[in-house]
Amino acid sequence: MALYVKAAEILEKAEKKQGALKTLVYDSKFGNVKQLFALVFETHKFSAVLEEIIASTKLVKLTKLRLPLAKVLVYDLLIGHGLKCGGAWKAVLLKNRARLQAALARIKVRQGVSDNQDLISDSAKQQDQQNLPRYLRVNTLKTSVEDTVDYLKREGFTYRGQARTVDDLTLKGKTFAQDMDIPEILIFSPKTDFHDHFLYKAGHVILQDKASCLPAHVLDPPAGSVVLDACAAPGNKTSHLAALMKNRVCTMSTLLLRAGVTCHQLKHQDFLKVDPHSPEYREVEYILLDPSCSGSGMVCLRDDSDTDQARLSSLAAFQLKCLKHALSFPCLKRLVYSTCSIHRQENEDVVSSCLQDNTHFRLVPVLPHWPERGLKPLPQCLRASPTSTRTHGFFVALLQRRSDTDPVEVTTTDSVGDGDIVSPCAGQKRAAESECEVSDSEEQSELTPADPTEPTQHSEPAPAHKKRRKRKKRKKNKTPGESGPDSH
Question: In CATH, which of 3.30.70.1170, 2.60.290.11, 3.40.640.10, 3.40.50.300 is domain 129-207?
Fold first, then answer.
């Protein structure tokens, strides 16, 4: 019975985008991890079919079972290797088995398939085919990249040096390489498992996808600065920030302590209710903002619900609110906004809409050689995906406070260069059709307001001014009685 309770708990967390299935399984400390792993992953693959069966038979209403628990039980009863529990749950499922089997048969007939495996959605099949590399981030608070490489080589791993291109990230067997963009990341073949490895248990390495390491790498706060990880959980990015700062950061506790982070202050409160001007936060200089999102970029969590427009609109509104709030911290110098979403509505549209009302911040181009850029008109941002970067889907934008010497940039969506700020259309729509064109004279008047005490001379061209001054000079130098063409 404990197996099904734990599997349901993990499945519910995964479907709420609270973590990757594999990480949730291994972090559960369940006795038989392999059995739990198989049950959770197989149930997740058949999730859409199981939900349809449960809904059509009204199983949840009849049995009072919670949906995640009903799904793992129905999976094992109909598709898996049979129920492994006794008692009331088994009695309830067996009582309804005929109705559940009939519902499964109807789905097969409707889809024209005979094998249960043919019921798996295309997105779930693609997840199986997208074997991404196994990424390890070396925790430089406890060890070094060089020492970790030496340790692994002594264990029989073959080191290939630093990767140069994305093609070098395709590894097999016990070979590994150093990442070409983030030096503290080591790359292994997809099936390499470190959950029981000494380096992982001791906190010397962190199991973290490369895309998830991008926000802290891009923010790059200097040692001694005050940093806020605004939406931190479970804390991998926070520990990465601490490592980059040589353990000097403001803002998570078991995971952070295991990672050797001693400079954090953990606050369990609503970020939107934080007062940026309070003594506790007014000195914050750097913010990493990774708010709740659809999770559509997570390969192991991708499903059809990711295109629910009502949900996306709600998430985007929340993300925009968080970003605007973050930019209100008085001493803020730089902010990284990131999501594990592939949707424009949660990414480029949020950033564009925020910058429209916060012109004292500008976008800064990041990692110029990165292969996948933000969607037009924001190429300064970067995106990640399984196909182009061999990672989960991700989005990262770096915003920096303008200095007094920064020029005021006005651009259109057709031409956006490095460092440009785009004025987007209202309502988080794609900034494309409606564009403003500013003439040189208008831009000059905007940059240098006219002094009302001085005469306006913009209507006369420069040569006319020169001729007039020459005429006045000639008049002044004329002797009495001398006449000329301008004397009358």
Answer: 3.30.70.1170
Q: Per the confidence metrics, is the pTM higher than 0.90?
A: no
| Residue 32: both structure tokens together | 């038989």
Q: Is the dihedral of CA 61, 64, 68, 69 positive or negative?
A: negative
What's the first-to-final CA gap in the chain, in angstroms? 112
Segment 447-477, tens digit of pLDDT:
333 333 333 333 344 444 444 555 555 554 5
Is 371 annotated to bind a ligand? Reply is no
Is 231 known as a binding-site position?
yes
Q: Where are the domains positioned within the chain?
A: 2-120, 129-207, 211-401
Give the residue among 253, 403, 270, 263 at the shortest CA–CA distance from 325: 270
Question: Is 236 annotated for ligand binding?
Answer: yes
What CATH homologous superfamily does 211-401 map to?
Vaccinia Virus protein VP39 (3.40.50.150)
> pLDDT class for 411, splitting at 50, 70, 90?
very low
* Top-ranked range on mean pLDDT: pick from 113-117, 216-220, 262-266: 216-220
Catalytic residue at 381? no
Q: Is 368 annotated as a binding residue?
A: no
Q: Out of 213, 293, 300, 340, which one is annotated catalytic?
A: 340
